[in-house]
Amino acid sequence: MLPLFTIDLTLCGGGLVVLRALPLGISSFRNLRKDDRIYVDKTDLVFSMVQNQSRVFLTRPRRFGKSLLVSTLEALFGRGLEDFQGLKIAKLWKEDKQYKVVRLDFSQISSIKLERFELNFSVHLVNAFGQFGFECALNVKSTAYLFF
User: Fold this and answer.
1) Is the pTM of this model over 0.90?
2) How many helices (H) does the chain have, and how many strands (E)?
3) What are phi and psi of 145, to 5 degrees?
4) pLDDT averaged over 10-residue windows placed end to end, the chain, 148 residues
């Protein structure tokens, strides 16, 4: 059971109010919705962005919701409206097709040396695409990769 916060408003003439927990540190849209955390619905803006833009470059400081936005897009294209009941986009989204979504998390790739970074990056690509059935040949010496 998730921790809920309660406030007794009997002094103000009200009853007991139960507030949902804040989604601190949660960057998974699916987990946020599944756990019934507080979510400010801006999915109409997500819909607008998807309909009107072919490419989007996100530049925001740390902790400004970039990962949550990417997770939202991943849920929308990967599972359709499954996680969007009651949100604005549920009335706007007409796409029935679901897609294989490859999400690359560059926070998992780090190295000071270029050669090691290239290897880590290549392995990350192989793992990310491999889970969807892509076969990949990886040349460790040159860190070249070829998907087919």
Assistant:
1) no
2) 5, 4
3) -140, 150
4) 49 65 88 91 96 88 89 96 96 95 85 85 89 78 52
